[in-house]
Amino acid sequence: MDTLATAKTRYATKAYDAEKKIPKEQFEKLLEILRFSPSSVNIQPWHFLIAETDESKQRIASGLTGNYVYNAAKVLHSSHTLIFCTRTDISAEYLEQLLQQDDLSGRFKDETAKQGQRATREGYVEFYRNELKNLSAWMENQTYLALGQLLFAAGLEGIDATPMEGFDRNIINQEFGLTEKGLKASVIVALGYRSKNDFNAKLPKSRLPDDVIFTRL
Asked: Any signal peptide, and if so, which residues (predicted)?
């Protein structure tokens, strides 16, 4: 599909057809696109939990109760649901893992280049940790870059998607032992195919006009 047409037609799906499943090869393609998402200094501070069985989707739905119960059916009827997790800190060991992966990928022409990347990445982490004091927000911003990449890729592939921030983070973090793994749940994304009863599919898109959101310098 054309990129502009995708931007104009994709939307947050409100109801899914539980009988329709994303073909395995196409879903794996989405995961690979997700893996190649951009992030500042390639910090990749994310981890993704993938639910495709009824049992695993029910576990996610356990965090969609009370004020968030309106989101439960989206998860339960989806083809797949992902939990986007963000690291709660950046350790020296993780920075070393990133650096060694860069090396394995052939990104350094020599040792000087490798050490330059080490210094740059460490410098960014320390800047956000100690000067701006918002390392957590900076990391979560990167996770949302990955979210945008997935949503647009799904639209191009003809797959419907729903990003959801309406969930009980404490329940989800506890259900999947995220805190102990140095992670926190940031956003949930349901994927699949819209139901014919999805009211949002019939509504026109609404965006502010160009002269409100753009200033041409």
From this structure: none
Model confidence pLDDT, tens digit, residues 23-79: 999 999 999 999 999 999 999 999 999 999 999 999 999 999 999 999 999 999 999
pTM: 0.96
State how far the Cα of 9 lies from the Cα of 2, in Å rounded to an integer: 11
What are the residue ranges of helices labelled H in the chain? 3-9, 24-35, 54-61, 72-77, 92-104, 111-126, 135-156, 169-175, 210-213
**DSSP 8-state secondary structure symbol assigned to residue 16:** B
**Distance between CA 52 and CA 148 in Å, rounded?**
21
Beta bridge partners of 162: 190
Residue type, 172: I
> Are 82 and 188 a contacting pair, CB within 8 Å?
yes
Instruction: Kindly state the DSSP code that residue 131 receives in the 8-state scheme.
Output: I
Catalytic residue IDs = 14, 74, 165
Q: Kindly compute the dihedral angle of the four CA atoms of residues 42, 47, 51, 52, in this order, to the nearest 10 degrees.
A: 30
User: Is it the case that residue 1 has pLDDT exceeding 80?
Assistant: no
CA-to-CA distance for 134 and 59, rounded, in angstroms?
A: 31
Question: 124: Cβ–Cβ under 8 A, 6 or more apart, which residues?
Answer: 40, 41, 43
3-89+146-194: CATH superfamily: NADH Oxidase (3.40.109.10)
- pLDDT band, residue 198 (cuts 50/70/90): very high
Cα 83 to Cα 86: distance, rounded to the nearest angstrom: 10
